[in-house]
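Q: What would this chain look like folded?
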Amino acid sequence: MIRSYVVAPFVLMLLGCAASADPHPGFEPPLAQIDPGCLSWKAAMSTMRETDPEAAIVYVDEGRAARQILAFVNALPPASHAEGDRVAVLYLPRSDKFLFVIGEKSCLASVVQVPSEQLQRFVGMGI
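A: My prediction, written as structure tokens:
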């Protein structure tokens, strides 16, 4: 179970999702870890961002913090089973949804779309 001290800061961060700049412009895993046979997580994140010119990267993390956020996302209905060691959260204002771009060892693992309305219902707060 995710404790409120993990989810609360994440939800507060999403409340400020109007940020227009990439908060982690240099965030990239070491090249030695990139598998040449996979789609790069960073390239996938950039591609997802380009689908909406107004899209904003509102959160990027890896390791334990990323797994905790994934546990939160997986608990949203309908339940998903996304796994990875890094996550980027993009807000797409034109479609009013969040994209959770999930990576595992520098490769794209999955993408989970969550409409803002669904996230609002789950956390009980306006976004």
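Helices lie at 4-15, 41-50, 64-75, 116-123.
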